[in-house]
Every structure is written in structure tokens, then in C-alpha cells.
From TrEMBL:
This is GTP-binding protein Di-Ras2-like protein. PROSITE patterns: RAB, RAS, RHO. One of its GO terms (molecular function) is GTPase activity. The lineage of its organism: Eukaryota, Metazoa, Chordata, Craniata, Vertebrata. SUPFAM superfamilies: P-loop containing nucleoside triphosphate hydrolases. It comes from the Eukaryota. PANTHER family: RAS, DI-RAS, AND RHEB FAMILY MEMBERS OF SMALL GTPASE SUPERFAMILY. Residues 162-184 are annotated as: Disordered. Belongs to the small GTPase superfamily. Di-Ras family.
Amino acid sequence: GASGVGKSSLVLRFVRGTFKETYVPTVEDTYRQVISCDRSICTLQITDTTGSHQFPAMQRLAISRGHGFLLVYSVTSRQSLQELEAIYEQICHIKGDLTSVPVLLVGNKRDESQRQVDTSEGQALATKWECSFLETSAKLNYNVQEAFQELLNMERRRTVSLQLEGNRPKRRTEPRLKGKCSLM
């Protein structure tokens, strides 16, 4: 998503349980968070990407390495929603068919009163892109855990589906890194 939509705030709320009022631009940061999923423990590797257009190579690399994507806009900025179109197209271009790639559209800053994007508009875009949708507030810790949990659940369903399609026997493994999430 665009600069200032709260990508880092969502990650820091999820990973550290903290929220900072001050804005500090991100180039790229990586975090790991242990989370439970379907009665097992998974480690989610989260890449918090820049909202700036100054680093297109870094953005392409994050997309190529990512297994799932949170596409974040601010409900207080229509422009931030419009800017996601180019990021979504880039993900499509790099990943190909997105029907098997977990994508969650996230409308952040739900707690703010100066709303420019209605919930129905976010839902409509998610329907168009055939992805899931949630509104969040990093400040109030609203739907933050749920957003990352939903993305992980989508990745787990995709992985199980790929295993079933490949007729590979399911084997028990120790908890390990299950997927990478890119926060765009």
C-alpha cells in the first residue's frame, strides 16, 4: 500500500502488541511471529515493504518471494485505495494466476472519523479481485490478529490443496517456517 496507510503499524501491533503515533517511513523490514493454525504452530515471516515508488526492484523481489499478501489502504484516503491497483497488477504479473495465491485486502484506520472510503467500496474491490477483505485499526487493535490469521489460514488451505492435487502422502513434520507474508 501507499506510504502512511499503517502497514508498519499493523505489523508492530501484531508482532509486538505496540502502536506508535509517530510516522517513520519504512524501506523494508522483516519480522517473524509464531502463530497457531489448525492445531499446529507456524512461524509467519512478514516483510513490511515501502509505500514509496522509489524502490521498485525491492517491491518486485518482495512479491516474487511472498506466499501471501496483505494489500493495505487507509479508509481515510481514496488515493491509497486507487494506488493498490498498480500493486495488485504487479502481483498478478509476477505470480500469474492469483486464484491460488492468498490475498487479503485490508482497509486500515477504521477508527478514524475522516473516512473517504466506505466499507462497501473495499468489499466491492475484494469481490472484483476475488480476494478476502477486512477493515482494521492498528491503533485500537481491531481485526489485526484476524487479518494475519486469515492470511495464514488461506495459505494453509492452498498448501493442503496442492498436496491433494499432487497425491503426495501427508507426513508429519516438526513446526517450521510455513509461509511468507508480504505487507504491501
